[in-house]
Amino acid sequence: MEGIYFYWLSWLIWIIYTFFMRKDRFRLFVCSHLLLLIILSAHEMTIGPFQFSFAYLFLLAVAYQFVMKRRGRAFIYFAFASAIVTITYVSFHLLALFDPVWIFMNETWMLACMLVCVTFALYRPFFSRLLLLTVGCCQGEFLYSFILRQFSFHNLIGSLFFFDGWMLSVSFLFAWRFFEQLPTYVDSLFQRRMKEMKT
């Protein structure tokens, strides 16, 4: 069922950040944007020969706003990195379409694992990885639909299948960030308990 990963994981991340994370700007950003994506995912629009979901256009616009803040070498490197993720996304989908025998596991999980591995190889900071993954997936989705258009195949750009793969990849990034920060959290908790015992 298309959309099951997107909706379940979106609500899971929203609940975690709403009720368990400290109140800061990133928490507000994550919660508000996830709700908007869920709402907009049910609506579509046509621009020229292409059909877009509102959620896809919203996600792309937000991602490009952050990309435009990069300057100089950082922007050039990000452009090359996002091109690599875009090519990975398109290549996987074309392979699944024309030679599906190579898809040896669930397609969504396989795509998410490939995208996360490429993202991890290109960037270390969490926010850069998240932005790279989002931009690469969005560009790849459009390029893949453009290629299909040449063969007279119609494809909704930003379908629930797209959001399933993107959200599963994003969830991997959030899980990795949690495990990276877990030792620091445990250490600070231990230090606080030790201070309480001494007083």
Automatic annotation (TrEMBL):
<feature type="transmembrane region" description="Helical">
    <location>
        <begin position="49"/>
        <end position="67"/>
    </location>
</feature>
<dbReference type="Pfam" id="PF24124">
    <property type="entry name" value="YphA"/>
</dbReference>
<keyword id="KW-1133">Transmembrane helix</keyword>
<feature type="transmembrane region" description="Helical">
    <location>
        <begin position="74"/>
        <end position="95"/>
    </location>
</feature>
<dbReference type="InterPro" id="IPR014617">
    <property type="entry name" value="YphA_Bacsu"/>
</dbReference>
<keyword id="KW-0812">Transmembrane</keyword>
<protein>
    <submittedName>
        <fullName>Uncharacterized protein</fullName>
    </submittedName>
</protein>
<feature type="transmembrane region" description="Helical">
    <location>
        <begin position="153"/>
        <end position="176"/>
    </location>
</feature>
<feature type="transmembrane region" description="Helical">
    <location>
        <begin position="101"/>
        <end position="123"/>
    </location>
</feature>
<feature type="transmembrane region" description="Helical">
    <location>
        <begin position="130"/>
        <end position="147"/>
    </location>
</feature>
<feature type="transmembrane region" description="Helical">
    <location>
        <begin position="26"/>
        <end position="43"/>
    </location>
</feature>
<feature type="transmembrane region" description="Helical">
    <location>
        <begin position="6"/>
        <end position="21"/>
    </location>
</feature>
<keyword id="KW-0472">Membrane</keyword>
